[in-house]
Design brief:
Number of strands: 12
Structural class: alpha/beta
Helix content: 40-55%
Distance between the termini: 69 Å
Order of helices and strands: HHHHEHEHEHEEHEHHEHEHEHEHEE
Radius of gyration: 23 Å
Strand order of the largest sheet: 2-1-3-4-5-11
Largest sheet: 6 strands, parallel
CATH topology of the largest domain: Rossmann fold
Strand content: 15-25%
Number of domains: 3
CATH superfamily of the largest domain: Response regulator
Length: about 325
C-alpha cells in the first residue's frame, strides 16, 4: 500500500496541513507533541514512505500561487488577475492559471484541484462562481492555503476578499423605491464574481422596508455571460417589457440590456434606467456611457495575494475576511 500513499493522504488522515506533515518528516521542533504523534500514527497506519519531494516540502517551496476559475468568468476577473500578477512578482511568487470548464470526462473541478495539488503550488486563489462551495470543500480537504475572492469565508488555512453585495443592492434599490420607482429587475449572469444570493437578499430587504415584495419569478432574469447570447435574449424581451430600473450583476450584461432596449425604441435613461456592476471598460464604451457600481477589482487581486502570503508564512493576520469598499459611478444610463 505504501507505494501508492502520498503526503496528501497522510495530511488528510491526520487532519493537518501538508506543511505540518513535512515538518514532522523533517524533524522540526515547532510541531506540538500531540500533533506530531497524530502524524506519525497516520504515517505508520498508511505505511507511508517519504520521498525526497515530501521531505523537501517544508524547506523548499515552489513559490507558486495557483489561480482557479471557470473560463467563462475570465472577462469578470481579468483585472483581478492583473493585480494578482503584479503583486506576486513583487513578492517573488510565480502564478499558474487553471480553468474548470470542459476538461473531458469526470468532475472538472476535482480534476483541476488534483492538478494544483500535484503541482505543489504553495497556495491557491479561488473566485466566487456557481461551483465555489465544491472548490472550497476540495481545497479544505487537501488543506491547501487559499483565499477566495468574492465570497465571505474563512478557516484555519483560508481567507477571503469580498464586496458586500447585499449592502450594494439594498442601497441602490432603497433609493429608487423611495422615489416611487418600484418596477425593478435584476439580471444575473450564469457565472458571477459577486455573490448572487447576497445581492438578491439586499434587494428583498429594501422591498420589505417599503412594505413590498420582490418577486423572483418576474423580477429576476438569468442570462448568459456571452454577449452574443444575452443580446438576442434581451432584444426579444424588450419587445414587450420595460422597467423603471434594470440592475445587472456585471457591466457586459448591462451593455446587452442597453443595446437591446435602444434597438426596441426604449429611451435610456428617460424611459428606463440601467446600472451595471464592476465599472469595467464595458461601462465606458457603452452608448450612452453606463452607470456602474465601482468595485476595486485590481486591488482585490493584490489584497488576495498579500493575504495568502501571510497565511503561507504564518504571519499575524488582523482579519481573514477582508471587505472592500464600493462606489456608484453615475453616467448616461441613469437620470
Amino acid at each position: 500500500m505504501g507505494k501508492n500513499v502520498t503526503i496528501y493522504d497522510v495530511a488528510r488522515e491526520a487532519g493537518v496541513s501538508l506543511a505540518t506533515v513535512s515538518r514532522v518528516i523533517n524533524g522540526s521542533n515547532v510541531v506540538k507533541p500531540g500533533t506530531r504523534d497524530r502524524v506519525m500514527e497516520a504515517i505508520q497506519r498508511l505505511d507511508f514512505k517519504p520521498n525526497q519531494i515530501a521531505r523537501g516540502l517544508a524547506t523548499s517551496k515552489t513559490t507558486t500561487i495557483a489561480i482557479v476559475f471557470p473560463q467563462s468568468l475570465f472577462a469578470h476577473v481579468k483585472d483581478m488577475i492583473g493585480g494578482i500578477g503584479d503583486t506576486s512578482r513583487r513578492l517573488d511568487y510565480n502564478v499558474s492559471i487553471y480553468t474548470t470548464d470542459e476538461i473531458g470526462d469526470g468532475n472538472p473541478i476535482e480534476t483541476v484541484i488534483e492538478r494544483v495539488v500535484k503541482s505543489r503550488a504553495d497556495g491557491v486563489i479561488l473566485f466566487n462562481n456557481e461551483e465555489i462551495d465544491q472548490e472550497i470543500e476540495l481545497v479544505n480537504k487537501y488543506k491547501i492555503p487559499s483565499v477566495v475572492i468574492g465570497s465571505r469565508v474563512s478557516s484555519e488555512y483560508m481567507g477571503s476578499i469580498f464586496v458586500d453585495s447585499k449592502k450594494i443592492a439594498f442601497e441602490v434599490v432603497d433609493e429608487y423605491l423611495a422615489k416611487g420607482k418600484t418596477d425593478i429587475v435584476f439580471v444575473s449572469p450564469r457565472q458571477n464574481l459577486i455573490k448572487t444570493e447576497d445581492f438578491v437578499a439586499g434587494i428583498k430587504e429594501a422591498y420589505q422596508k417599503h412594505g413590498m415584495t420582490f418577486d423572483l419569478e418576474s423580477q429576476m432574469i438569468h442570462t448568459s455571460t456571452h454577449y452574443e447570447k444575452s443580446y438576442p435574449q434581451f432584444l426579444e424581451y424588450f419587445q414587450s417589457h420595460r422597467h423603471d430600473l434594470v440592475l445587472t450583476g456585471y457591466d457586459k450584461e448591462a451593455v446587452a440590456v442597453v443595446n437591446a432596449a435602444v434597438d426596441n425604441g426604449i429611451q435610456v435613461p428617460d424611459e428606463m434606467e440601467v446600472i451595471g456592476m464592476m465599472n469595467t471598460s464595458y461601462a465606458l464604451i457603452c452608448r450612452p456611457p453606463l452607470t456602474s457600481i465601482h468595485v476595486p477589482v485590481y486591488d482585490m487581486g493584490a489584497l488576495a495575494v498579500r493575504l495568502l502570503t501571510k497565511i503561507l508564512n504564518e504571519e499575524e493576520i488582523d482579519q481573514k475576511e477582508v471587505p472592500v469598499l464600493h462606489l456608484l459611478m453615475p453616467r448616461g444610463t441613469t437620470k
